[in-house]
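The freezer alarm interrupted the setup, so I double-checked each line after restarting. Inputs confirmed:
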Amino acid sequence: MALQLCRRRVAKVFCVSIGVAGGLTREERSSIARQALPIGLSVSPFGIAFGVMCTQANLRWFHALGMSSLVFTGGTQFAAVGVLKDGGTAAAAILAGLLLSMRSLVYGLMMTPTLKGSFLFRAFASQLMIDESVAVGTAQHTPQARRAGYLAGGLSVFVFWNLATMIGYWLIGSNADFTRRFGLDATVPAAFAALVWPRVRDARQRPITLVGAVIAFALIPLVPPGMPIVAAALAVPIVLAARQVIISREGGE
Amino acid sequence: MSTGTVVLLSVAAGTYMWKAAGPLLLGNRTLPLRVEAVMGMMPGALLAALVVTATVADGRRWSFDARIVGLAAAIVALVARRGFVTVVVVAALATAAARAAGLP
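Predicted 3D structure, all chains:
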Protein backbone atom coordinates (compact mmCIF):
# COMPACT_ATOMS: atom_id res chain seq x y z
CA MET A 1 0.00 0.00 0.00
CA ALA A 2 2.73 2.40 1.01
CA LEU A 3 4.68 1.34 -2.06
CA GLN A 4 1.68 2.01 -4.26
CA LEU A 5 1.19 5.49 -2.76
CA CYS A 6 4.86 6.15 -3.29
CA ARG A 7 4.64 5.00 -6.91
CA ARG A 8 1.65 7.24 -7.54
CA ARG A 9 3.50 10.15 -6.05
CA VAL A 10 6.54 9.50 -8.25
CA ALA A 11 4.27 9.19 -11.28
CA LYS A 12 2.56 12.47 -10.47
CA VAL A 13 5.76 14.37 -9.78
CA PHE A 14 7.28 13.00 -12.98
CA CYS A 15 4.33 13.95 -15.18
CA VAL A 16 3.74 17.34 -13.54
CA SER A 17 7.42 18.20 -13.70
CA ILE A 18 7.46 17.80 -17.47
CA GLY A 19 4.16 19.65 -17.78
CA VAL A 20 2.05 16.94 -19.35
CA ALA A 21 -0.28 16.01 -16.50
CA GLY A 22 -3.15 18.29 -17.56
CA GLY A 23 -6.46 16.50 -18.07
CA LEU A 24 -5.14 13.04 -17.20
CA THR A 25 -6.57 10.60 -14.70
CA ARG A 26 -4.38 9.20 -11.95
CA GLU A 27 -4.29 5.83 -13.72
CA GLU A 28 -3.18 7.38 -17.00
CA ARG A 29 -0.41 9.34 -15.27
CA SER A 30 0.89 6.29 -13.46
CA SER A 31 0.70 4.09 -16.56
CA ILE A 32 2.67 6.64 -18.59
CA ALA A 33 5.34 7.05 -15.90
CA ARG A 34 5.66 3.27 -15.54
CA GLN A 35 6.46 3.02 -19.26
CA ALA A 36 8.45 6.22 -19.77
CA LEU A 37 10.96 5.86 -16.91
CA PRO A 38 12.08 2.26 -17.65
CA ILE A 39 12.34 2.94 -21.36
CA GLY A 40 14.69 5.83 -20.58
CA LEU A 41 16.76 3.57 -18.32
CA SER A 42 16.79 0.77 -20.86
CA VAL A 43 18.48 2.86 -23.54
CA SER A 44 21.28 3.87 -21.13
CA PRO A 45 23.65 0.96 -21.90
CA PHE A 46 23.24 1.84 -25.56
CA GLY A 47 24.03 5.49 -24.79
CA ILE A 48 27.15 4.43 -22.91
CA ALA A 49 28.19 2.33 -25.92
CA PHE A 50 27.65 5.39 -28.10
CA GLY A 51 29.89 7.54 -25.89
CA VAL A 52 32.56 4.83 -26.05
CA MET A 53 32.27 4.65 -29.83
CA CYS A 54 32.77 8.42 -30.11
CA THR A 55 36.13 8.12 -28.36
CA GLN A 56 37.08 5.28 -30.73
CA ALA A 57 36.22 7.55 -33.67
CA ASN A 58 38.47 10.27 -32.19
CA LEU A 59 35.55 12.70 -31.81
CA ARG A 60 35.57 15.56 -29.28
CA TRP A 61 33.18 15.64 -26.30
CA PHE A 62 30.94 18.24 -27.94
CA HIS A 63 30.55 15.97 -30.97
CA ALA A 64 29.37 13.16 -28.71
CA LEU A 65 26.92 15.32 -26.73
CA GLY A 66 25.89 17.23 -29.87
CA MET A 67 24.96 13.94 -31.52
CA SER A 68 22.94 12.79 -28.51
CA SER A 69 21.05 16.08 -28.09
CA LEU A 70 20.81 17.55 -31.62
CA VAL A 71 20.57 14.35 -33.67
CA PHE A 72 18.95 12.36 -30.82
CA THR A 73 18.19 9.22 -32.87
CA GLY A 74 20.12 6.17 -31.66
CA GLY A 75 20.58 4.15 -34.84
CA THR A 76 21.44 7.25 -36.86
CA GLN A 77 24.11 8.35 -34.39
CA PHE A 78 25.67 4.88 -34.39
CA ALA A 79 25.61 4.66 -38.17
CA ALA A 80 27.24 8.06 -38.73
CA VAL A 81 29.90 7.68 -36.03
CA GLY A 82 30.44 4.02 -36.97
CA VAL A 83 31.36 5.05 -40.52
CA LEU A 84 33.83 7.63 -39.16
CA LYS A 85 35.31 5.12 -36.72
CA ASP A 86 36.01 2.72 -39.58
CA GLY A 87 37.74 5.44 -41.57
CA GLY A 88 34.84 6.27 -43.91
CA THR A 89 34.29 9.67 -45.51
CA ALA A 90 32.04 12.43 -44.13
CA ALA A 91 29.68 11.95 -47.10
CA ALA A 92 29.28 8.23 -46.37
CA ALA A 93 28.68 8.99 -42.67
CA ILE A 94 26.00 11.59 -43.46
CA LEU A 95 24.28 9.36 -46.03
CA ALA A 96 24.25 6.34 -43.70
CA GLY A 97 22.89 8.47 -40.85
CA LEU A 98 20.13 10.11 -42.87
CA LEU A 99 19.01 6.87 -44.50
CA LEU A 100 18.64 5.39 -41.05
CA SER A 101 16.61 8.31 -39.67
CA MET A 102 14.19 8.26 -42.62
CA ARG A 103 11.74 6.35 -40.47
CA SER A 104 11.33 9.52 -38.38
CA LEU A 105 9.42 10.92 -41.35
CA VAL A 106 6.90 8.09 -41.07
CA TYR A 107 6.71 8.56 -37.29
CA GLY A 108 6.14 12.30 -37.79
CA LEU A 109 3.24 11.65 -40.14
CA MET A 110 1.79 9.13 -37.68
CA MET A 111 2.06 11.51 -34.70
CA THR A 112 0.94 14.72 -36.44
CA PRO A 113 -2.71 14.46 -35.31
CA THR A 114 -1.54 13.92 -31.71
CA LEU A 115 0.86 16.87 -31.70
CA LYS A 116 -1.35 19.79 -32.62
CA GLY A 117 -0.44 23.13 -31.08
CA SER A 118 1.57 26.28 -31.66
CA PHE A 119 4.43 26.25 -34.16
CA LEU A 120 6.96 26.44 -31.29
CA PHE A 121 5.37 23.48 -29.51
CA ARG A 122 5.39 21.38 -32.69
CA ALA A 123 9.01 22.39 -33.41
CA PHE A 124 10.04 21.28 -29.91
CA ALA A 125 7.97 18.10 -29.90
CA SER A 126 9.40 17.07 -33.29
CA GLN A 127 12.89 16.78 -31.83
CA LEU A 128 11.57 13.99 -29.56
CA MET A 129 10.40 11.95 -32.60
CA ILE A 130 12.11 8.62 -31.82
CA ASP A 131 11.12 4.95 -31.57
CA GLU A 132 10.55 5.10 -27.80
CA SER A 133 8.41 8.26 -27.66
CA VAL A 134 6.21 6.99 -30.49
CA ALA A 135 5.98 3.58 -28.80
CA VAL A 136 4.86 5.01 -25.43
CA GLY A 137 2.58 7.56 -27.11
CA THR A 138 0.76 5.10 -29.37
CA ALA A 139 0.30 2.67 -26.44
CA GLN A 140 -2.10 5.10 -24.67
CA HIS A 141 -5.85 5.14 -25.17
CA THR A 142 -7.00 8.77 -25.23
CA PRO A 143 -5.71 11.70 -27.31
CA GLN A 144 -4.42 13.60 -24.24
CA ALA A 145 -2.74 10.48 -22.87
CA ARG A 146 -1.12 9.77 -26.25
CA ARG A 147 0.31 13.27 -26.33
CA ALA A 148 1.50 13.02 -22.72
CA GLY A 149 2.95 9.55 -23.30
CA TYR A 150 4.85 10.76 -26.36
CA LEU A 151 6.34 13.73 -24.48
CA ALA A 152 7.11 11.73 -21.32
CA GLY A 153 8.74 8.88 -23.27
CA GLY A 154 10.76 11.31 -25.38
CA LEU A 155 11.96 13.48 -22.49
CA SER A 156 12.80 10.48 -20.32
CA VAL A 157 14.97 8.98 -23.07
CA PHE A 158 16.51 12.40 -23.80
CA VAL A 159 17.75 12.80 -20.21
CA PHE A 160 19.04 9.22 -19.75
CA TRP A 161 20.51 9.10 -23.26
CA ASN A 162 22.60 12.24 -22.81
CA LEU A 163 23.74 11.28 -19.29
CA ALA A 164 24.74 7.83 -20.59
CA THR A 165 26.63 9.37 -23.50
CA MET A 166 28.68 11.47 -21.06
CA ILE A 167 29.39 8.45 -18.86
CA GLY A 168 30.50 6.41 -21.87
CA TYR A 169 32.65 9.21 -23.25
CA TRP A 170 34.37 10.42 -20.08
CA LEU A 171 34.35 7.52 -17.63
CA ILE A 172 34.75 4.51 -19.89
CA GLY A 173 35.83 5.55 -23.38
CA SER A 174 39.30 6.75 -22.45
CA ASN A 175 40.15 3.19 -21.48
CA ALA A 176 39.83 1.24 -24.75
CA ASP A 177 41.06 -1.98 -23.15
CA PHE A 178 38.21 -1.74 -20.65
CA THR A 179 35.75 -1.71 -23.58
CA ARG A 180 37.18 -4.88 -25.08
CA ARG A 181 37.81 -6.72 -21.82
CA PHE A 182 34.24 -6.25 -20.59
CA GLY A 183 32.75 -6.99 -24.01
CA LEU A 184 31.25 -3.51 -24.36
CA ASP A 185 31.96 -3.52 -28.11
CA ALA A 186 29.38 -6.32 -28.41
CA THR A 187 26.67 -4.16 -26.81
CA VAL A 188 26.34 -2.31 -30.12
CA PRO A 189 25.36 -5.25 -32.35
CA ALA A 190 23.27 -6.62 -29.47
CA ALA A 191 21.34 -3.36 -29.18
CA PHE A 192 20.73 -3.30 -32.95
CA ALA A 193 19.64 -6.93 -32.76
CA ALA A 194 17.15 -6.00 -30.02
CA LEU A 195 15.85 -3.10 -32.12
CA VAL A 196 15.46 -5.21 -35.28
CA TRP A 197 14.04 -8.23 -33.43
CA PRO A 198 10.33 -7.30 -33.68
CA ARG A 199 10.84 -6.98 -37.45
CA VAL A 200 12.58 -10.37 -37.64
CA ARG A 201 9.61 -11.94 -35.84
CA ASP A 202 7.17 -10.26 -38.24
CA ALA A 203 6.70 -12.67 -41.17
CA ARG A 204 6.12 -9.80 -43.62
CA GLN A 205 9.33 -7.98 -42.69
CA ARG A 206 11.58 -10.97 -42.05
CA PRO A 207 12.68 -11.40 -45.72
CA ILE A 208 13.69 -7.74 -45.81
CA THR A 209 15.88 -8.04 -42.71
CA LEU A 210 17.53 -11.21 -44.09
CA VAL A 211 18.21 -9.75 -47.54
CA GLY A 212 19.52 -6.55 -45.93
CA ALA A 213 21.89 -8.57 -43.73
CA VAL A 214 23.17 -10.62 -46.70
CA ILE A 215 23.76 -7.50 -48.82
CA ALA A 216 25.71 -5.84 -46.00
CA PHE A 217 27.80 -8.95 -45.29
CA ALA A 218 28.73 -9.45 -48.94
CA LEU A 219 29.69 -5.80 -49.46
CA ILE A 220 31.94 -5.33 -46.39
CA PRO A 221 35.23 -6.07 -48.23
CA LEU A 222 34.07 -4.55 -51.53
CA VAL A 223 32.93 -0.98 -50.77
CA PRO A 224 33.95 1.79 -48.33
CA PRO A 225 32.74 1.48 -44.71
CA GLY A 226 29.16 2.67 -44.26
CA MET A 227 28.14 1.85 -47.80
CA PRO A 228 27.11 -1.75 -46.96
CA ILE A 229 24.48 -0.24 -44.62
CA VAL A 230 23.25 2.21 -47.24
CA ALA A 231 23.13 -0.52 -49.91
CA ALA A 232 21.06 -2.74 -47.59
CA ALA A 233 18.14 -0.35 -48.20
CA LEU A 234 17.91 -2.03 -51.64
CA ALA A 235 16.48 -5.04 -49.78
CA VAL A 236 13.09 -3.29 -49.68
CA PRO A 237 12.59 -2.89 -53.48
CA ILE A 238 14.19 -6.33 -54.06
CA VAL A 239 11.82 -8.11 -51.68
CA LEU A 240 8.78 -6.13 -52.84
CA ALA A 241 9.59 -6.94 -56.50
CA ALA A 242 10.09 -10.62 -55.67
CA ARG A 243 6.78 -10.66 -53.84
CA GLN A 244 5.11 -9.07 -56.87
CA VAL A 245 6.54 -11.79 -59.16
CA ILE A 246 5.34 -14.54 -56.81
CA ILE A 247 1.88 -13.02 -56.54
CA SER A 248 1.51 -12.61 -60.32
CA ARG A 249 2.71 -16.19 -60.90
CA GLU A 250 0.27 -17.59 -58.40
CA GLY A 251 -2.46 -15.49 -60.00
CA GLY A 252 -1.63 -16.92 -63.43
CA GLU A 253 -1.92 -20.57 -62.39
CA MET B 1 35.49 22.73 -39.47
CA SER B 2 36.59 19.24 -38.53
CA THR B 3 35.01 16.18 -40.17
CA GLY B 4 33.22 15.42 -36.90
CA THR B 5 31.58 18.86 -36.81
CA VAL B 6 30.52 18.68 -40.47
CA VAL B 7 28.94 15.25 -39.92
CA LEU B 8 27.29 16.35 -36.65
CA LEU B 9 25.67 19.47 -38.12
CA SER B 10 24.61 17.81 -41.38
CA VAL B 11 23.11 14.76 -39.70
CA ALA B 12 21.41 16.92 -37.04
CA ALA B 13 19.83 19.19 -39.68
CA GLY B 14 18.82 16.30 -41.95
CA THR B 15 17.40 14.19 -39.13
CA TYR B 16 15.40 17.15 -37.79
CA MET B 17 13.95 17.61 -41.28
CA TRP B 18 12.72 14.00 -41.26
CA LYS B 19 11.35 14.35 -37.73
CA ALA B 20 9.60 17.70 -38.18
CA ALA B 21 8.27 17.36 -41.74
CA GLY B 22 4.97 15.87 -40.58
CA PRO B 23 4.16 18.06 -37.56
CA LEU B 24 5.51 21.32 -39.05
CA LEU B 25 4.74 21.18 -42.76
CA LEU B 26 2.07 18.65 -43.60
CA GLY B 27 -0.47 19.40 -40.91
CA ASN B 28 -3.07 16.68 -41.31
CA ARG B 29 -2.24 15.59 -44.84
CA THR B 30 -0.65 12.15 -45.20
CA LEU B 31 1.60 10.43 -47.75
CA PRO B 32 0.29 7.82 -50.21
CA LEU B 33 -0.04 4.48 -48.41
CA ARG B 34 2.45 2.80 -50.78
CA VAL B 35 5.19 5.35 -49.99
CA GLU B 36 4.52 5.04 -46.27
CA ALA B 37 4.68 1.24 -46.46
CA VAL B 38 8.06 1.24 -48.24
CA MET B 39 9.54 3.73 -45.76
CA GLY B 40 8.18 1.75 -42.85
CA MET B 41 10.12 -1.32 -44.02
CA MET B 42 13.43 0.51 -44.58
CA PRO B 43 14.56 0.31 -40.90
CA GLY B 44 14.35 -3.50 -40.98
CA ALA B 45 16.92 -3.74 -43.77
CA LEU B 46 19.19 -1.04 -42.33
CA LEU B 47 19.11 -2.31 -38.74
CA ALA B 48 19.84 -5.86 -39.89
CA ALA B 49 22.78 -4.52 -41.91
CA LEU B 50 24.00 -2.69 -38.80
CA VAL B 51 23.87 -5.91 -36.79
CA VAL B 52 26.09 -7.54 -39.42
CA THR B 53 28.63 -4.72 -39.78
CA ALA B 54 28.82 -4.09 -36.02
CA THR B 55 29.55 -7.79 -35.51
CA VAL B 56 31.96 -8.79 -38.28
CA ALA B 57 33.31 -5.63 -39.95
CA ASP B 58 36.70 -4.18 -39.09
CA GLY B 59 37.06 -1.28 -41.47
CA ARG B 60 36.98 -2.70 -44.96
CA ARG B 61 37.49 -6.34 -44.05
CA TRP B 62 35.74 -9.15 -42.22
CA SER B 63 36.89 -9.88 -38.68
CA PHE B 64 35.39 -12.91 -36.96
CA ASP B 65 36.07 -12.44 -33.23
CA ALA B 66 34.43 -12.64 -29.79
CA ARG B 67 31.71 -10.20 -30.85
CA ILE B 68 30.04 -13.12 -32.67
CA VAL B 69 29.73 -14.98 -29.34
CA GLY B 70 28.14 -11.84 -27.88
CA LEU B 71 25.63 -11.58 -30.72
CA ALA B 72 24.76 -15.29 -30.43
CA ALA B 73 24.11 -14.81 -26.70
CA ALA B 74 21.99 -11.73 -27.46
CA ILE B 75 19.88 -13.73 -29.93
CA VAL B 76 19.35 -16.47 -27.32
CA ALA B 77 18.17 -13.78 -24.87
CA LEU B 78 15.85 -12.32 -27.51
CA VAL B 79 14.37 -15.73 -28.30
CA ALA B 80 13.78 -16.11 -24.54
CA ARG B 81 11.88 -12.78 -24.75
CA ARG B 82 14.24 -10.88 -22.44
CA GLY B 83 14.19 -7.09 -22.29
CA PHE B 84 16.56 -4.66 -23.94
CA VAL B 85 18.84 -4.27 -20.90
CA THR B 86 19.20 -8.03 -20.38
CA VAL B 87 20.00 -8.58 -24.06
CA VAL B 88 22.76 -5.97 -24.04
CA VAL B 89 24.23 -7.11 -20.71
CA VAL B 90 24.20 -10.79 -21.76
CA ALA B 91 26.04 -9.89 -24.98
CA ALA B 92 28.71 -8.01 -23.05
CA LEU B 93 29.14 -10.84 -20.51
CA ALA B 94 29.39 -13.53 -23.21
CA THR B 95 31.91 -11.50 -25.19
CA ALA B 96 33.96 -10.79 -22.06
CA ALA B 97 33.93 -14.52 -21.19
CA ALA B 98 34.99 -15.47 -24.72
CA ARG B 99 37.87 -12.97 -24.59
CA ALA B 100 38.91 -14.25 -21.16
CA ALA B 101 38.99 -17.73 -22.71
CA GLY B 102 41.42 -16.52 -25.36
CA LEU B 103 39.32 -15.48 -28.38
CA PRO B 104 40.41 -12.23 -30.08
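Quick read of the result. Residues 97 and 135 of chain A are 21 Å apart (CA to CA).
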